[in-house]
Design brief:
- The chain is mainly alpha-helical.
- It has 2 domains: about 90 residues, Hypothetical Protein Yqey, Chain: A, domain1, CATH 1.10.1510.10; about 55 residues, Arc Repressor Mutant, subunit A (Orthogonal Bundle).
- Helix content is about 80%, strand content about 0%.
- The protein contains 7 helices and no strands.
- The longest helix is centred in the middle third of the chain and has 25 residues.
- The protein is globular, with a radius of gyration of 18 Å.
Length: about 150
Amino acid sequence: MSDLKKQIQDAVIIAMKAGEKKRRGIIRLMTAAMKQIEVDERIELDDARIIAILDKMVKQRRESISQFKTAGRDDLIKQESYEIDIIQEFLPQALSEEEVDGIVNQAISQTGANSIKDMGKVMGLVRPQIIGRADMGEVSGRIKSILTTT
């Protein structure tokens, strides 16, 4: 069993014992998403795949927040933000802008990318290093702006 999966399962028990129903519910959503993939694909998840699942859950909640802002639903924004906070506890430490720029620049020089046509090559190198640690949409935008100005 992966370390991250064990950590998440332990967190459910701790939340149960502490009587934290909201927290427990969110952590159970995480375990359910992991279990769904394990059952569907008949695999045991490793930490990298779990991070990808959690990152996707955070992304979905961020998208919901932007829609709720448009609708003026502050109550739902608060709930989604709380869920993001809980999920992010299990994700690796976020990268600083300087760290992301370093990874992007290294990938660009490694691939010899010099136009937007090389975006896929660069993303292929960058993605595994930053998944769960930075917003992929923002990173993609940075890469695109670098490759269009060169």
